[in-house]
Amino acid sequence: MDQEQTAEQINALYHKYSDSIYSFIIFLIGDSEKAEDLTHDTFLRAFSALKTFEGRSSEKTWLYSIARNVSMDHQRKTILRRKLAAPLSSSLSSKDPLPQDVLEMSEAEQELYRALNKLKEKYRLVIYFRKIQELSIEETALVLNWKESKVKTNLHRGLNALKKQMVKEGYSHETI
Q: For the chain, which has fewer Cβ within 10 Å, the N-terminal or C-terminal residue?
């Protein structure tokens, strides 16, 4: 595959999946401006790696994996910069939805996201992929680089933790 074909293929993937990848990155890092940059970085990495893509997963799950790695790299670098610059005195990043997103959500959705953002990362990720993005167990396992049994176990535990968190916070209606 030559450079031009690769560019055309990545361009097609970008148009097809960029909104999903952007939403996922916002979910992970909570910063819309940085999510735009990281979405572009995801597709740049995909461009570089397209020749090695073997098709063992769908293009979508492959891109989610790249996006997850790009976001994790960004978070590691951010944490390192902050540790070097000054001691950490508060939370590294807000996991609450962005203000403009909150305005567009129903009350039940707002409650759900607030509770979801208080869970362990592995629970947030598996719930995001299985329940919000509606990926299959197999696709979720590929994105997270987990076994399918781990996806099932963490989904079950995550949903239970989410219900407990919602009860703890006194939410009035069942949103999951």
A: N
Task: Residue 64: name the closest of 10, 127, 21, 22 by CA.
Answer: 21
The Cα 9–Cα 110 span in angstroms is 37
What would the two tokens of residue 40 be? 């572009």
Q: Are residues 152 and 115 in the same domain?
A: yes
CATH number, residue 64: 1.10.1740.10
Cβ distance 62 to 20 under 8 Å?
A: no
Cα 44 from chain centre: 18
The one-character DSSP state at 132 is I
pTM of the model: 0.66
8 and 40 in a common domain: yes
In tens, the pLDDT along 105-160 reads: 677 777 788 888 899 999 999 998 998 888 999 989 988 989 999 999 999 999 99
Residue 57 shares a structural domain with residue 128: no
87 and 115 assigned to the same domain: no
CA gap 173, 166 in Å, rounded: 9
**CA proximity to 41, closest of 14, 15, 59, 5:** 14
Cβ proximity of 110 and 102 under 8 Å: yes
Say whether both 30 and 75 belong to one domain. Answer: yes
Mention every residue, 6+ apart, whose C-beta is less than 8 A from residue 56. Answer: 142
